[in-house]
Amino acid sequence: MTLSLDSTSVFRGGRAILDDASITCAPGCFTALCGPNGAGKTTALSVMSGALRADKGRATLEERNIRSFASVELARRRAVVSQNSVLTFPFEVHEVIAMGRAPHYGRSTPKRDRQIIAEVIDLMGLQTFAERRFTTLSGGERQRVHIARALVQVWEAPDEDAKRWLLLDEPTAALDLKHQISLMRLLQRLASDGWGVVAVLHDLHLVKSHTDEVILFKSGAIAAAGPTKEELTAGRVKDVFDLDEAYSLSA
Predict the structure, then answer these.
(1) 229: Cβ–Cβ under 8 A, 6 or more apart, which residues?
(2) For the purposes of burial, counting CB atoms within 10 Å of the CB of 181, is it exposed (0-12), middle (13-18) or buried (19 or more)?
(3) Rg of the chain, C-alpha, whole Å
């Protein structure tokens, strides 16, 4: 039931931006992808989501090549929040969130869809502007809406054997401190409930205090992977980020 990369490479301009990477992420675990800009984190997440085809190797979900899933079948199992989710049409917030239920049309009921949407709106603290136009929101508010849309997409597993996966690329980037902490706690809780959560994150203090596993990237390759408390050390961070001195991760 894992989500994995198997000896995966992606080339651009003759250069490997992801270089023979092997990753295994498990449901019930909050996994962080960390490393310098351009280290391959987003590329790895894109291959794992099925959005990007690898030049070498493959991504697997539930021991199947992720490219073998029909798009709607895959969408019922994993939801993605990208760095640059753009929406310029003046939909209301609740309408944007409802888009996440599209893969379930014909399988769910309108009543159940409304229940899920209302539950997630409440969970994400979006009640006060659920009727507002999405285009009037701040960057952080828009990010919370996109996360809510992803949540309703995989709020229920498509069948008893499937797991729910949430893949996020820099989900805290536009959020203020309160909402960063709130989101990280929510992702922790979802993982503890059996979801697979994989996120590209830059704030190493948030990573250390909230995630179960960390995968560190450097120059397109995996530099380290394992339990966050074991792998996210000052010395390791110094090496991965080419720092002049050890970086303190103490509270």
Answers:
(1) 208
(2) middle
(3) 18
Asked if the model's pLDDT at residue 28 lies above 90, the reply is yes
pLDDT digits (tens, 9 = 90+) for 96-117: 999 999 999 999 999 999 999 9
Q: What does the H/E/C string look like for the chain?
A: CCEEEEEEEEEECCEEEEEEEEEEECCCEEEEEECCCCCCHHHHHHHHHCCCCCCEEEEEECCEEHHHCCHHHHHCCEEEECCCCCCCCCCEHHHHHHHHHHHHCCCCCHHHHHHHHHHHHHHCCCHHHCCCEHHHCCHHHHHHHHHHHHHHHCCCCCCCCCCCEEEEECCCCCCCHHHHHHHHHHHHHHHHCCCEEEEECCCHHHHHHHCCEEEEEECCEEEEEEEHHHHCCHHHHHHHCCCCCCCCCCC
Residue located via tokens 């828009």:
142
Taking the C-alpha atoms of residue 70 and residue 134, their distance in angstroms, rounded to an integer, is 30
pTM exceeding the 0.90 threshold for the entire prediction: yes
CA distances from 99 to 95, 113, 130, 239 (A): 7, 10, 14, 42
CA distance 157 to 112: 14
Could you give phi then psi for residue 142, rounded to 5 degrees?
-60, -40
